[in-house]
Amino acid sequence: TQLLEQSPQFLSIQEGENLTVYCNSSSVFSSLQWYRQEPGEGPVLLVTVVTGGEVKKLKRLTFQFGDARKDSSLHITAAQPGDTGLYLCAGLSSGAGSYQLTFGKGTKLSVIP
Amino acid sequence: GAGVSQTPSNKVTEKGKYVELRCDPISGHTALYWYRQSLGQGPEFLIYFQGTGAADDSGLPNDRFFAVRPEGSVSTLKIQRTERGDSAVYLCASSDRGPSGYTFGSGTRLTVV
């Protein structure tokens, strides 16, 4: 069974601070995605990383895929209250034509004004 | 439609009853996925449809769960003899280009009492 572990599980910071959340696995994934989920809503896709060592930026968010494609990180610069939410990483395993995602438990981020 | 629509948004049922959950994907999306998200957990894969056929049903927990997509558009997840452990948010997603195009609905919150 492939597992994705996210850390920290909870994070509460002041507006303007920087933060990094991590997503680790013992398995190799063909690609990895990051989602943000707000209460009562479905997850919203932020980014997909495919190549080992890849770095993608989305405004104040920086995503990195580990060289071995087993881990990833999300760094947020100058966090704002609008960044509050549950951040989920999800790994895609290739093969057999199924695009099944394995999700971590998520990091619940609270940004305090 | 503009997004993935799931109905009902909330469903309370008694233990042992039968329930149906509906998903209306984005028009033209051939791939449709069902996931289940329990409290404090990330979504867990249930089943994947490509067109009308179930391409991967390896995530269905037991034979009380069944899903159909008869015309390749709307899908219904059916749960027989519901148990309290079935209580969760059931999420549907659709895609036109594999996991990079995943769009989730807001989910159906199922509570079995």
Key terms for this structure?
heterodimer; A: 113 residues; mainly beta; six-stranded mixed β-sheet; B: 113 residues; seven-stranded mixed β-sheet; four-stranded antiparallel β-sheet; 49% strand
Structure description:
- The complex is a heterodimer of chains A (113) and B (113).
- Chain A has one domain: Immunoglobulin-like (Sandwich).
- Chain A is built from no helices and eleven strands.
- Chain A has strands spanning 5-7, 10-14, 19-24, 31-37, 44-49, 55-58, 61-65, 71-76, 85-92, 101-103, 107-112.
- In chain A, strand 9 and strand 10 (101-103) form a beta hairpin.
- The termini of chain A are far apart.
- Chain B is mainly beta.
- Chain B has a single domain (5-112), classed as Immunoglobulins (Immunoglobulin-like, Sandwich).
- Chain B contains no helices and eleven strands.
- Chains A and B meet through strand 5, strand 9 and strand 10 of A and strand 4, strand 5, strand 9 and strand 10 of B.
Q: Topology, please?
A:
The complex is a heterodimer of chains A (113) and B (113).
Chain A: E1 5-7, E2 10-14, E3 19-24, E4 31-37, E5 44-49, E6 55-58, E7 61-65, E8 71-76, E9 85-92, E10 101-103, E11 107-112
Parallel strand pairs in A: 2-11
Antiparallel strand pairs in A: 1-3, 3-8, 4-5, 4-9, 6-7, 7-8, 9-10, 9-11
Chain B: E1 5-7, E2 10-13, E3 19-24, E4 31-37, E5 44-50, E6 53-56, E7 65-68, E8 75-79, E9 88-95, E10 103-104, E11 108-112
